[in-house]
From TrEMBL:
Domain of life, per lineage: Bacteria
SUPFAM superfamilies linked to this entry: Aldolase (SSF51569)
Domain PseI/NeuA/B-like, first and last residues per copy: 36-272
Pfam families: NeuB
Name listed for the protein in its UniProt record: N-acetylneuraminate synthase
InterPro entries: Aldolase_TIM (IPR013785), PseI-like (IPR051690), PseI/NeuA/B-like_N (IPR013132)
């Protein structure tokens, strides 16, 4: 079970693909976004991910006029969405920085015009946010790009996932088990869904998108076979914004990638053998050798 993003193949026993989600943690600041890209590259991640919205389309009607306290003063939720959205020139600047740091980059488009926007910029893949899994018009637009689609499955029923996959197909699909609580408590992780999704959709690689505090749940997901891991990244979890509290700081992302690689080495291949390091203890301790 493999899928390709650009020249990189994911699954099939290869090292887990680590996605550092910047999302909106840049707070509309290009220089902050570049610093977060540097954090991802320095930690050994393979990709960074953003979010792309057309605010007038992607903001639910009942939320548009709701007041929101922001670092720029009180504004409507719609104006806040406009304030933190990167335009084309800003996206070119941050995407160029990602490529220069050796990272693939893509985003979660929340509406169909955003798909065209990202395609024009040459993204490596597309990510479907859990909130958009039931938007079949968006899914069709993503399918028609011919690029790999990464589908998060939080806040969704099995029937809704089935319907989304019916639209997207399975040829260029990476499923991500997720629970859309920010931050998520361990008892809501339900990591056994990783093998369950693998069994339900044969041939589709399955990863994990996490919103928990700490590293343990994401590391357990790798031990259960997740071929990709996505975590939000921030410079400081106390920064203003909705996702910072469920994000990893730079040291946390470094430790995550390090420990994923340790776990992958420790998993081995399932073939029983006597290792060279066991020979001396065996000679010393084993009385019966047959």
């Amino acid at each position: 079970m493999t899928v390709s993003i650009g020249q990189r193949v994911i699954g099939g026993g290869r090292p887990a693909y680590v996605i550092a989600e910047i999302g909106l943690n840049h707070n509309g600041d290009v220089e902050l976004a570049k610093r977060l890209i540097d954090v991802a590259a320095d930690a050994g991640a393979q990709a960074v991910k953003f979010q792309k919205r057309t605010p007038e389309l992607a903001t639910p009607a009942h939320m548009r006029d709701v007041p929101r306290e922001t670092p720029w003063g009180t504004m409507t939720y719609l104006d806040y969405r406009r304030r933190v959205e990167f335009d084309r020139e800003q996206y070119i600047e941050v995407s160029d920085h990602a490529v220069l740091r050796g990272l693939q980059w893509f985003a979660s488009p929340w509406d169909e015009p955003s798909v065209a926007f990202l395609e024009d910029l040459g993204v490596a893949a597309h990510k479907v946010a859990s909130a958009c899994l039931t938007d079949h018009g968006l899914l069709r637009a993503l399918r028609d790009t011919g690029k790999t689609v990464i589908l998060s499955t939080g806040m969704s029923t099995t029937e809704q996932i089935d319907a989304a996959i019916e639209v997207l197909g399975t040829d260029r699909l990476l499923l991500m088990h997720a629970t859309s609580t920010y931050p998520m408590e361990p008892e809501e992780a339900n990591l056994r869904m990783i093998p369950s999704l693998r069994d339900r959709y044969p041939g589709v690689p399955v990863g994990y998108s996490g919103h928990e505090r700490g590293l343990q749940v994401s590391l357990a997901a790798v031990a259960l076979g997740a071929v990709a891991v996505e975590r939000h990244v921030t410079l400081d979890r106390t920064m203003w914004g909705s996702d910072h509290a469920a994000s990893l700081e730079p040291a946390g992302l470094q430790h995550l990638v390090r420990d994923i690689r340790v776990i992958e080495a420790a998993l081995g291949d399932g073939v029983k053998r006597v290792y060279e390091g066991e020979l001396a203890p065996m000679a010393k301790l084993r009385r019966v050798t047959t």
